[in-house]
Design brief:
425 residues, alpha/beta, eleven-stranded mixed β-sheet, 11 strands
Length: 425
């Protein structure tokens, strides 16, 4: 089961005897709390940590009859695009040997692609569900911010991240979303979707006749030629089924990656301050003064990418730089949201390649973090705008590497993106 290192732990969690997911296995990303089962967020800092409670999404899985076969490997604290920053080793892409599975929910996508779980939960801060879904040739849904509870999710960047489903097909992903969605008294950011009574799974009917699709040209600029070619083939397939597409402009996305990383790293700097070896995390020893103990714990517990993001986030929030970086990033975020809302007045949904490149070779981007950050160019704008998006398989390159197609909808427009995606997967 674990030859590609998709699981961190394989301790089984049994669900109820019946329910809509009875008899199904749903793996859970290791930054989502599971009562009595180790939850590490892929970090040595939390090795051995056993939560005393279930995340809301895990409780809902159990009530729905699902069995959790294990906790999936991930980039440490969700910080990565390749699932190579985990303290428990890198994950191999089970459908593209020698290549990364995407990240940070790479373990979740890998176990689904390998058939070692029927479905899985991931979390998406800037593409961390959609990226591995695209790289592993499966389906991943990033819900509208607030549709799914984040209670029990180990926080990286609260204002951006959402838990969502990964599955072999759009219909199965929609079935899992049905169980996860809905208000939660433990998470004040959750709300009822306007059309909550309607089934997500029923929307996976493949009917795209009359659907208007906007294609943001900015999300094609600079993309790999093989990815662009595969994307247009998929768009032609949708057109043949009755949809129409036209170009739209999203000028603000030019600044989205920079804005995203300033905001995400700033929030990470704040959220990860609790891991000091006293309140949370491994102790660094108590010889010397408190500052030395604090530094030792974080030096030993955090990996290089996590340290990099904490330092950059702390810098962006520091006196004298807050207005120069963090405030400007928030202004850019508002601009991105405005552009998406305007584009979606002229189209029912928007479409682009999920990732601008095919799966990278393992080790290719570890020494070049900037390249890894830029690979998120098509996914991060959606998180800044707090909109729903789905990644579905669009085909393969000539080298046999999976390519994903991303469909973005208006706020709480999950049914629209599920319907469009189901025409392809």
């Amino acid at each position: 089961m674990t030859e590609y290192n998709g699981y961190i732990t394989t301790e089984t969690i049994e669900g109820a005897d019946d329910g809509p997911l009875a008899g199904r296995t749903v793996a859970v990303k290791d930054n989502i709390s599971t009562e009595g089962v180790q939850t590490t967020a892929g970090s040595a800092m939390l090795e051995g940590y056993v939560p005393p409670y279930d995340a809301t999404v895990v409780r809902r899985l159990k009530e729905a009859g699902a069995t959790v076969p294990g906790k999936t490997n991930m980039d440490e604290f969700g910080m990565g695009t390749t699932t190579e920053t985990s303290a428990y080793g890198a994950v191999e892409n089970p459908v593209a040997e020698g290549h990364v599975p995407g990240g940070s929910s790479g373990g979740s996508a890998a176990v689904v692609a390998a058939g070692d779980a029927d479905m899985a939960l991931g979390s998406d801060t800037g593409g961390s569900i959609r990226c591995p879904a695209a790289f592993c040739g499966v389906v991943g849904i990033k819900p509208t911010y607030g549709l799914v509870s984040r209670y029990g999710l180990i926080a990286y960047a609260n204002s951006l991240e959402q838990i969502g489903p990964i599955a072999p097909s759009v219909e199965e992903a929609a079935e899992l979303l049905e169980v996860l969605a809905g208000p939660d008294e433990h998470d004040a950011t959750t709300r009822e979707a306007p059309d909550a009574a309607e089934s997500y799974a029923d929307a996976a009917d493949g009917d795209v006749d009359g659907l208007s699709i906007g294609v943001p040209t900015e999300l094609l600029d600079g993309a790999d030629e093989a990815v662009v070619e595969t994307f247009w083939d998929a768009m032609d397939d949708l057109e043949a089924q009755g949809a129409s597409y036209h170009e739209v402009d999203l000028p603000s996305v030019e600044h989205a990656v920079e804005a995203y990383y300033v905001i995400a790293m700033s929030e990470a700097s704040s959220n990860l301050a609790r891991f000091d070896g006293v309140r949370y995390g491994q102790s660094g020893g108590f010889e010397g003064n408190w500052n030395e103990s604090f530094a030792n714990a974080r030096e030993e517990g955090f990996g290089e990418e996590v340290k990099r993001r904490i330092l950059l986030g702390t810098y962006a929030l520091s006196a004298g730089y807050h207005d120069k970086y963090y405030k400007k990033a928030q202004d850019a975020r508002a601009w991105v949201k405005q552009d998406f809302d305007e584009a979606l007045t002229d189209a029912d949904v928007l479409a682009s390649p999920t990732m601008p490149v095919p799966p990278m070779e393992r080790g290719e981007s570890l020494d070049d973090p900037l390249t890894m950050y830029l690979a998120d160019a098509n996914t991060t704008p959606v998180n800044l705008a707090n909109l729903p998006a789905i990644s579905v398989p669009a085909g393969e390159t000539d080298d046999g590497l999976p390519v994903g197609l991303q469909i973005v909808g208006p706020a709480f427009g999950e049914r629209a993106i599920i319907r469009a995606g189901s025409a392809l997967a």
